[in-house]
Amino acid sequence: MSIKLNVGRSEFYDKAVSLGFYGNDESGLTGKKDNVRKFWEEMSMKVYCRGLLEKIVKGGKKISILDLGSGSGEGYKLLTQIPPANPKDSVENDFLLTKSGIKEYLGIEVNKAMAEQGRLNYKRYSNVKFKEADLTEGLPKIVLDHEPYDMYFSSFSSLSHLDQNQLEKLLSQIFTHARKGSVMYFDVLGKYSPEWTKYWNKQDEMLPYTLSYLIPNTNWKKENLEWFLASYWSPEKLRKTIQSAAESSGRKINISFMTDRSVFVGRHMDTGLMSGKRIPVRYQVNRLFDYGFRGQIKHLELDMMYLKDLIPSNPEVWKRLFDYQIKWNRVIYILGALYNHKDEKIKRFIEEADIAHMSDDLKFLVWLFRNSDRFPVADFWSSVLGPQVAVVLRNIEMSYTEAVGCGHSLMCGLEVVG
What we know:
Blueprint: E1 4-5, H1 10-18, H2 35-56, E2 63-68, H3 74-79, E3 102-109, H4 112-121, E4 128-132, H5 141-144, E5 151-153, H6 164-177, E6 183-190, E7 207-209, E8 226-230, E9 232-233, H7 235-249, E10 253-261, H8 281-289, H9 315-339, H10 343-351, H11 356-370, H12 380-398, E11 409-416
Helix pairs in contact: 1-4, 6-7, 8-12, 9-10, 9-11, 9-12, 10-11, 11-12
């Protein structure tokens, strides 16, 4: 396969905007805003961002947000749709941060077409603005001349377009610009995702990446795909970069969390372009989340043994992947036991669950299945059980709070404490 490298990446994003991928489209089985993005990835981000926002949204204070690599403004929508931690609080207040609670949102975006799409998406919001600037050159003057922001935000690996030195410089500028109490959320591509096993032991600063998943694979040929360079991060490398940036800025930074997201449901599990093995598990989980499309549990069972040759050089990563695989498959097996009325197996699967909430989740799946007659729906699987199975699989991933770099994205939360 020959790679057509488009280092500037703007041409592909121009095409993506023209095809409507950055408008306010709905979720579905495929595409940029598929079900996994909406109900798995964005929900995971909301849960982690909630803890950061709770620190700055107090007493009805309006906050300012700087979105770095904002695209067409998806971050604004995500941050204003975070449910409260306590469900009781959602009776009168649907979300932690409301649109009226944002004093100012500024999106920094290198691609002109996406910035223009953002202005179109939010043309009715006077407090939402977009500025075209290249973050590889650091923070633009409009930001440096602005008062500190309450939240510095970047999502869906936008900062992986920067190399290590560029990210360190950007973080140092952010830490210098921020006030004590400012928070930051960002994510970058994980080094050890099973999506790109060919990269695990490569020492290159940046490696090829493609957004081919935006276009149905029936419409592209491998030899014509467009690629650009991106950075892939281990937790150790990211921590060192953050520490170095903090030291150069003279600020004290607390890492609130660093965790893996989309371990088995990353975009390129389905394409196999960077691993040589196509495992379309994301598509199957998309089907679980879809309320009108039946899933098939036989296609959800995972087998990561194709990674066995990488175990000696990456034992910690393998340990995490193998542990998650066991828990993942236990969910799939319990469904099979339910359908075949294997009560002893069901009991054993629940008792062997080694994290408390997983046992509760499995018990809930069993209760749902055995009480299906209580739900007035045409298709119990697609409307009730399937979506809940997907949520349980997501919850298992979120139970691993310490990152090893095995997710599609490595999520990080920071607080300026001094």
